[in-house]
Amino acid sequence: MISGQNLGRGALLGKITASGKYTLSLSASGDGSQVPCALLVHDTNATAGDQKTAIYESGEFNAAAIAIGAGHTIASVRDGLRDLGIHLKAIVPA
User: Fold this and answer.
1) N or C terminus of the chain with fewer C-beta within 10 Å?
2) Cα angle, residue 29 at apex, residues 32 and 63 outer, rounded to 5°
């Protein structure tokens, strides 16, 4: 993950085209990271420098637990993520 961020588990990430590094996906970005493509596995503090971390690139996830960046909504990213094998589900209590 690129430096300057402290993100929690479930953050919706995009990949910067030029560097291949992941960052919080913001819809207004113009570096490739505006396209969400992964979810952060665990809390990662990269405020002091780039950090290696684990990401999910496929699976089913609780939509209410996803941290999304500015300009995105669950509805706006759901179809694109589904095409990548990331499925956001509404959890219904029993």
Assistant:
1) C
2) 85
Predicted TM-score (pTM) of the model is 0.92
- 3-class state of residue 82 by DSSP: helix
Spatial distance between the Cα atoms of 92 and 86, rounded to a whole number of angstroms:
19
User: 65: which 2 tokens?
Assistant: 């637990």
CA 89/CA 33 separation, integer angstroms: 23
User: Phi, psi at residue 59, to the nearest 5°?
Assistant: 135, 180
- At 73 the three-state DSSP class reads coil
Q: Give the model confidence (pLDDT) of 35-89 as tens digits.
A: 999 999 999 999 999 999 999 999 999 999 999 999 999 999 999 999 999 999 9
